[in-house]
Amino acid sequence: MGKLKVGVVGLGKMGLSHFAMVNAHPDVETIACDGAGFMVDVLSKNINTTIYRDFDEMLAKEPLDAVVIATPSRLHAPMVTAALDKGLHVFCEKPFCLDWADSQRLTDTAAEKGLVTQVGYHYRYVGAFREMKRLIDAGAIGRITHVLAEAYGPVVLRPKRSTWRTDKAEGGGCLYDYAAHPLNLLNWFFGAPDRVMGSHLGQVFSEGTDDEVFSTLRWNEGPTAQLSVNWSDESHRKMSTKISLIGTNGRLYADRQECQAYLRKPVDGLEGYDEGWTVKYTTELTEERWFYLRGEEYSGQLDDFICAVRDGKRQAPENGFASATETDRTMAMIIENAETGTPVGEARTGAPQPAKKRGWFGR
Amino acid sequence: MDKLLFGDNQFFGINHMSEEKARAQAMRFQKTQAIMDVLDVAYDTGINTFMCTTHDRIAEIAKRVKADPVRYADFQFYPCMPYAHKYANAVTEHGMVGALREFMPKDGLLATALTGTKALATKEVDGIAKVLIDMEMKMFEGTKTPVVFIQNVFTDLLLGMGFTRALRIFDDHIREKWGAEPAYITMNMPMLLDALEKEGIERPIICSNINKIGFRMSGGFDAYLDALKSGRVRAVAMSVYASGAIPADEAIHWVSELPGVESIVFGASSAGNIRGTKELVDKYMGQHA
Q: Which of A113, B90, B217, B262 is the most buried if burial means most Cβ atoms within 10 Å?
């Protein structure tokens, strides 16, 4: 079988790294595309890859199988639309679309056409979070009631020059850039929340967008979660995402390096997890990939996408458009809640049970 | 190269096992004296080479080493460049071209070329790369730097993109201007080795993960062993303990029997671990560093 032809669109921070990984993939021939600029200029003189300056021209001229879209978020919806119209499989950077109605429409279009779709929520490819998901699904800590989802890191540390990343209308800001990740993990674990309240999108140094996010999310048939995210925190060397869960049978904690479990009682089918603490580290949770750049999760997600296309699958194993749409919708709920101050979504059905009257020592 | 090199991850809050431990280390090594104390233990144990990022704080270490030439007569640095955060911050602040302009001599030709609207000539790109390398080397002037590495994120980005000509520019410039051996850190050793050979770079010094459990040996465990056996690479093994997943004695013993591994680089912050690793390397790799 010949190689797949994949166009990588956008050679910014994520785009360059995607381009390097896709280009190194043994089953792929890569084409690149970005508007004119310093990077395009230097690269076109120094590498063999064809680099287009115009997206439409690339779509028209190249017989592509798939595209990887890593442009500023505002451009995702129109570019993904054009690519799907051409019948191409699409990997798109996160967040998927700024208006979740677009996300839904594109999810439907891709499904009708049977195209493989994926969005770059790479935390689902981090070994420790995969282990956490496995433990949740196995019922390791029983009924989960209490969730804390956090992300901190040093992105905006002073008032500075604005770029699309600091412009809300372009899809910038701490909510889209940082909070999207822990939210996407919560969607993975529990689905879309039924109700969002207490949201705060705060500014620390930015003028055009948010630097910190708080929110309370509730699942009618599940837990209540608190989200705490801040990208103006210099004490973290780089972005750090962590999830803590408490359930009736114990506690789980995960970050990029490790997954810690505390079980009150062992659970059938979970080998290696005894009563009390069990800690698993990246060293044992990591799957090797064909190429490593900044972490296995980045090449892992691209590998899954490429292999799904190569093998004629109708969908990628993880992070399809439908699941990214859940995250876009969750973020829309947080924005609406922060703007109006009114809880967004359905309240728990049925009135709360009134407290029973008890005697001093009654049960 | 010495058999045992001392690394610097532990000083900068980098720990591949635990974010909690990483933070505890960042707290402990906040003061340069705390780093110096550990380096002194390593040096007095007979480990003379400090393989370190071109982090701003390393400049302070270099200053101290220069200030006491008698005490540190045999102390040498293997710089690893670039310190990526410095550039990442500048790019966020000034944009790609703006950041580069910040780093160029103010009234030189290159700064002018970057201001212009014309596409840069190949020679100008090479010139910019050389200025950036020289800037990273500045803090080490007056110290011994016989080997100079390029950091893995950078090596691997260039490797993936197929921009290996940049590695060739680095190689030539480190030899010609700095009279040192150019070397490469990578997470993709077999692929890098092929690419370097295509650029005409023979028997390169390559530092990569080499450990018994195959942790982060991207491209496959067997491909690594084949490359080592082929004699085409002078390897420096890192992550030999796989972040603590392999017992020390077993880990060093295994690596010592591989052909092509000239050195081991490790990081530790306790005297016990430093001496322990030194003893194991002496025991299995034959000679004193």
A: B217
Contact status of A26 with chain B (Cβ, < 8 Å): no
> Does A133 share its domain with A256?
yes
Q: What is the per-residue pLDDT across A36-69, written as a single tens digit (0 to 9) for each?
A: 788 888 899 899 999 999 999 999 999 999 999 9
Q: Which residue of B has its CA nearest to A40?
A: B119
What single string gives the DSSP state of each residue in chain B? --SEEE--GGGGT--SS-HHHHHHHHHHTSSHHHHHHHHHHHHHHT--EEEEE--HHHHHHHHHHHH-TTTTTT-EEEEEE--HHHHHHHHHHHHHHHHHHHHS-TTSHHHHHHHSSSPPPHHHHHHHHHHHHHHHHGGGTTSB-SEEEE-HHHHHHHHHHT-THHHHHHHHHHHHHH-SEEEEE-S-HHHHHHHHHHTT--S-EEEEE--TT-TT-TT-HHHHHHHHHTT--EEEEE-TTTTTTS-HHHHHHHHHTSTTEEEEEE---SHHHHHHHHHHHHHHH-S--
Q: Which of B19, B94, B120 sits opposite A161 (nearest CB)?
A: B94
* Complex-level ipTM: 0.93
Domains in chain B: ranges and CATH: 4-285 (3.20.20.100)
| Chain A nearest-CA residue for B161 | A20
Prediction pTM value: 0.93
Closest Cα in chain A, distance from residue B21 (Å):
11
Residues of chain A with Cβ-Cβ distance to B159 below 8 Å are: 20, 24
CATH number at residue A31: 3.40.50.720
Does the beta-carbon distance from B218 to A42 stay under 8 Å? Answer: no
